[in-house]
Amino acid sequence: MKNIVLFIKENLAVGLLLFALFLGAGNIIFPPLLGQQAGENITLAMIGFLITGVGLPLLAIVAVAKAGGDLQLLANRVSPTFGVIFTSIVYLAIGPFFAVPRTGSVSYEIGIAPFLPESVADHWAPLFITSVLFFALILYLAINPTKLVDRVGKILTPALLIVILILAVKSFISPMGEPGTAVGEYTVSPLTEGFVQGYLTMDVLSALVFGIVILQALRDMGMSDTKKQIKTTIFAGIVAAIGLSFVYISLGQIGNTSIDAIGASDNGGVIIAKSAKVLFGNFGSVILSATILLACISTAVGLLTANAQYFNKLFPKISYKTFLVTFTIFSAAITNVGLSTIISASLPVLLMIYPLAMVLMVLSLVDHFFKGGQIVYILALIPTFCVSLYDGLKVMNIRITPYENILKALPLYEQSLGWLVPAIIGALIGFIIHKLMKR
């Protein structure tokens, strides 16, 4: 009995660590927006969102654990060149290009803007001042070794969960209003639209990087057996999945009942900030703002540190500090374009690389069936990229009519999932070729 209790305690600790890694401040802003825009179709939309926002990231963690914890080693199964390029793109996407600037913008939208007059909040100066101060603090924490971030992390996760729990309970007991009417793609295909919107969490990409963190934590606990590491990772994934699902469903409910009280918005940060004020007044806004600010600081430090370490390893002649300073300044600059613009700019890129990440992840999980045959990876990823690349270009209003007419024949093309069938067919052809080559 004592061994069972110890096993559960150790595994639960790893699960909470994984949950804390996933629960970035940026994840707080997407479910309320989905809830408001999905309206009466929120159930199907949320199911789609949970698949890409919870289920696939946890499969990615397992895939990376089986591959030894290193994303580049996993991507090298396609080719070493692909491994470097793809891994670099993933790090930059969850680092200075999108995810880190998003933390700066979320800090302003939820932590600062609600306390400013509307005419002042819409001006460029407050956001600029906030970004300078925010990233100066981030740079200090990332350069100077300190236990502050660890302490913030230990306090942050339960604090953020408590705040979300209080908001969710209040929204269920005394809703701000009735669900609105579904808009956009949520009116015709809420499930697939929720699935694609889950890309914005970037959790699959983050999971491919977090794998090494989880494996290191297990090794520090004295766990060296690979099978036991994978089993523990799966258990930790279940714990994290329960926590993330609770957060996403709760925030979706808040957004779903908010439109009568605060009006429609295309910014999830604005929705959750205004909802907190409606539900609990100024006190609710203060508590939410403080918690989100801490979450943003913790997330930004972790992502910038990971990026600087990876690129320092890739280009050892350039110091860690040089990469860190460069990425921090770049993130501060991007922050000033605003949260809505950052999210809009990230969607085309995510539509291009997310399918590649998902196909790579799934193939790695069934790798033992084809003994790591390179041809299987290549023939699955090439058609995937041919379709996903155009999905991204289409969102940027770059259209090539003859090519688009061909792609329109693919199942689920209109839902930005046209890559799915070509990926499966490519993998099957690769599998057959691999078997023939062995014979």
Automatic annotation (TrEMBL):
Record field: transmembrane: 12-30, 42-65, 77-99, 124-143, 155-176, 196-218, 230-251, 283-306, 318-339, 345-363, 375-396, 416-433
Keyword S-adenosyl-L-methionine in record: no
Bilayer disposition of the protein: Multi-pass membrane protein
Keywords (A to Z) from UniProt: Amino-acid transport, Cell membrane, Membrane, Transmembrane, Transmembrane helix, Transport
Subcellular compartments: Cell membrane
Free-text function comment from the UniProt entry: Component of the transport system for branched-chain amino acids.
PANTHER family: BRANCHED-CHAIN AMINO ACID PERMEASE BRAB (PTHR30588:SF8), BRANCHED-CHAIN AMINO ACID TRANSPORT SYSTEM 2 CARRIER PROTEIN (PTHR30588)
Family: Belongs to the branched chain amino acid transporter family.
Name the UniProt record assigns to this protein: Branched-chain amino acid transport system carrier protein
